Amino acid sequence: MSDKFDVIVIGAGPAGYVAAIRAAQLGLKTAVVDAFVGKDGKAALGGTCLNVGCIPSKALLDSSKQFHNLTHNFKDHGITAENPQIDIGTFIGRKDKIVKQFTGGVTMLFKANKVTSFFGKGKLLKGNEVEVTGNDGTVSKISATNVILASGSVPIELPFAKFDGTHIIDNAGALDLTAVPKRMGVIGAGVIGLELGSVWKRLGADVTVLEALPKFLAVADQDIAKMAAREFAKQGLDIKVNAKVTSAEVKGDEVHIGYTDKDGAAQSLVVDKLLVAVGRRAYTAGLLADDTGVKLDERGRIVVDEHNHTGVDGVWAIGDAVRGPMLAHKGSEEGVMVAELIAGKPGHVNLDTVPWVIYTEPEIAWVGKTEEQLKEEGIPYKTGAFPFAANGRAVAMNEGIGQVKMIAHAETDRILGVHMVGPVVSELIHECVVAMEFKGSSEDLARIVHAHPALSEVVHEAALSVDKRAIHKGN
Ligand code: FAD
Ligand code: NAD
């Protein structure tokens, strides 16, 4: 007889571990099966996000920003240092410590909430049984009334640039380099390419980013994308759009890359490290027995309804393994919703107000629709914008770069999207998420008192600017 639980979660990333904790809080007997093995060869909870994603990348972004400020920006404050150096061992070691602190934190939370952990690969069998192949090779079976699939995603590999872990690397490789490469190539000017490309650029690498699409950051509002592109160019990030990579060959200690430019002309690039960051795909290898009835879509994602139910009795799926943005907070909220639905409570996730943040310098953040999307959908809108250059706090911080752009419905004034590039916009965006979630208008934000001097005054002025009444700029 197999051990019986109320809920089994397969995958302990931010979607799965949050679902498990919420289920346990609601009094459900909960188990988690997770296969992730950390750098030290030991099981590590937290999935991609805590081990090789959100948290380690932010640790390296922060350290590299400090170094960049010391070498480039502190002199404006009258602060100088002779011959500043960075020790890569300490730089990576600090990141590893943070990762351990947070993955260990999930272990502690599981203990505190009485969530049972199984370390190994979980496979859903018919009838909500789960076969667990432990990291030590032992096979056992557990079962539950409800199973939540939270198996996450893995990097997409290009057939002509296969990961070798040394010269052609993925996100995990780029988070663990032992020295600053002299020349780094990045395929894909998406979120990972920009964040990890920035890390190594700030430490002195020559970074060239090759993007296949003709537009830079096509998913973002193009006013914001253009402003960000200008800043990245000033920092020396060489971003080539319309660059279609055709080959990547390791020769000795170099990678020789072939690509075509916007005119279709053949070009070449030689680098020491090549980061391939062309997107991620849902990971479902070995997750489902043939007869479970769980369906995958044309992109290999687990098919779910708006409540993340798979259509198979008691089987749910959340996070990167299903449709919607591949973001940690989106997966976590789906996890909470599913746990609450299982416990008989109401639950809902509004995918239209999931914020996006790119942690470059300046940061980029947005929520809701872009101007391009609204045009395409024929929705009438009005916009307002305000620059950080006119904000006292931003200028005092030496970070008067970028802007907040707000888009509201032309007739109802309801906020449809807010797009930002500038200092700490990763935090500023949330005021707009709340406003949108409460179906607020630009007038609502315009009438709310904002502290002075504060970066959030830029949001306030952008809201005023929708109605052409910003105070600190011409309208
Ligand atoms: P994952 O985090 O991928 O976790 C899935 C877990 O399931 C893994 O531990 C995996 O080993 C395990 N698993 C898979 N199959 C099985 C199985 N059959 N049996 C047992 N275990 C299994 N998102 C943000 O919101 N903000 C960021 O700043 C951010 N930065 C990122 C930076 C990088 C470099 C990368 C790569 C990603 C980043 N992301 C960020 C995306 C974020 O990491 C993902 O959206 C998030 O981790 C998805 O969570 P998840 O729980 O669905 O899956
Ligand atoms: P991405 O989808 O953000 O960007 C991939 C880029 O590669 C796109 O611009 C695409 O046009 C380009 N591309 C695709 N194929 C190409 C090719 N053959 N040659 C050149 N360019 C090509 O993917 P990513 O950067 O790998 O990140 C994956 C996902 O991880 C993100 O979409 C996001 O969901 C998540 N993530 C989030 C954060 C964050 O929230 N700050 C950080 C990192 C990753």
From TrEMBL:
Binding site for FAD: 58, 122, 320, 326-329
Required cofactor(s): FAD
Record: active site: 452 (proton acceptor)
Reaction catalyzed: N(6)-[(R)-dihydrolipoyl]-L-lysyl-[protein] + NAD(+) = N(6)-[(R)-lipoyl]-L-lysyl-[protein] + NADH + H(+)
Residues where NAD(+) binds: 188-195, 211, 279
Record note on cofactor: Binds 1 FAD per subunit.
Keyword annotations from UniProtKB, A to Z: Cytoplasm, Disulfide bond, FAD, Flavoprotein, NAD, Nucleotide-binding, Oxidoreductase, Redox-active center
A Pfam family the protein falls into: Pyr_redox_2
Domain FAD/NAD(P)-binding: 5-335
GO biological process: 2-oxoglutarate metabolic process
Enzyme class (EC, first level): oxidoreductase
Pyridine nucleotide-disulphide oxidoreductase dimerisation domain ranges (all copies): 354-463
PROSITE patterns, alphabetized: PYRIDINE_REDOX_1
Subcellular location as annotated: Cytoplasm
Alphabetized GO MF terms: dihydrolipoyl dehydrogenase (NADH) activity; flavin adenine dinucleotide binding
Disulfide-bond pairs as recorded: 49-54
Entry GO terms, CC: cytoplasm
EC annotation from Swiss-Prot or TrEMBL: 1.8.1.4
Similarity comment: Belongs to the class-I pyridine nucleotide-disulfide oxidoreductase family.
Note: The active site is a redox-active disulfide bond.
Name of the protein described by the UniProt record: Dihydrolipoyl dehydrogenase
Species whose genome carries this gene: Luteibacter pinisoli
Record gene name: lpdA
